[in-house]
Specification:
This protein has 172 residues and is mainly beta. The chain is 13% helix and 42% strand. The protein has a single domain (22-169), classed as Immunoglobulin-like (Sandwich). The protein is built from two helices and eight strands, in the order ααββββββββ. Strands 1, 2, 3, 4, 5, 6, 7 and 8 form an eight-stranded antiparallel sheet that branches.
């Protein structure tokens, strides 16, 4: 049974790679009550210059319940990563608050996953509940501060200019 599960998982990963990293949500996801729209986002490599040598996150697509980042909507973030600095880490999507002392919100399913040294692809989910700057970041497995990531957003949900080290607009 375990062997067939491993083969099935390998087949799904191969399909993801062959199908492209920027694919729209899968059939299973589109049958949910959410209606997905492509989000034309701006991606910004870690604004605080924390990416460790060899570590990288690239967001390839964002789909949401609306076509811009807005409070009250849910987003699916697809991308690829390379983890070189740690054997294992947590990859999570959060918002960095632009206002002091905003409450921490409860995580939703699919907002975080465990990854291992090497390269791979990811799909994460974020429900936007406050003003802020969304980002996908690496975190130590035993809690602690992020050690790299990529910010993304639209409109007022883009990291402020004074935070930005280097900016790039996502390819269509």
């Amino acid at each position: 049974m375990i062997k067939s599960w491993k083969w099935r998982r390998m087949g799904m990963m191969a399909a993801m790679l062959i199908g492209g990293l920027g694919a729209a949500p899968t059939t299973q996801e589109t049958t949910s009550p959410l209606s997905w729209h492509a989000v034309d986002f701006v991606g910004i490599q870690d604004v605080f210059s924390r990416n460790l040598v060899g570590d990288a996150i690239v967001i390839t697509a964002v789909h949401g319940t609306t076509d811009t980042i807005e409070i009250g909507n849910t987003y699916q973030i697809d991308g690829a990563y390379t983890l070189a600095s740690h054997d294992v880490a947590t990859l999570s999507v959060y918002e960095t608050d632009t206002q002091p002392n905003e409450p921490h919100r409860q995580m939703i399913p699919g907002q975080s996953l465990t990854i291992y040294k090497g390269s791979g692809t990811f799909t994460l989910r974020l429900k936007v509940e406050d003003p802020g700057c969304p980002h996908v970041s690496f975190y130590p497995i035993v809690h602690g501060q992020s050690f790299g990531g990529e910010y993304f957003g639209t409109g007022s949900f883009i990291a402020p200019k004074h935070w930005q080290v280097a900016a790039a607009t996502a390819a269509p």
